[in-house]
Amino acid sequence: MAVQVTIYSNESDRWQGKPLHLAVLNYLHEENVFAACVLHAVAGFLGRQRVKTSHLVDAGGKLPVIIVFVDTDEHVNRVLPKLKEMAAHRLIVRENVVLEQGNLD
Q1: pTM for the complete prediction?
Q2: What residue numbers bound the domain in which 71 lies?
């Protein structure tokens, strides 16, 4: 079974002094997760706050950053506890997905 996890964060989130999205991406790479990427949004909102866009002068590092990764259920179960610690204050979504092409080998 393939599982996709999405973490919704923003530019100002940090983990041990580093940008959260880079810390998470590095952790996933170290843990040999099959595929991961970070998407930097040009607009969005988190937690029912006001919409932030890249055109606002006062955006102040609050633009959304989305981290997405895909792996087997077993591998996701292994890395998820650490990710919940790293992004304790952020939304994490886990969903079973169908691989239309490729495999997790």
Answers
A1: 0.87
A2: 2-97
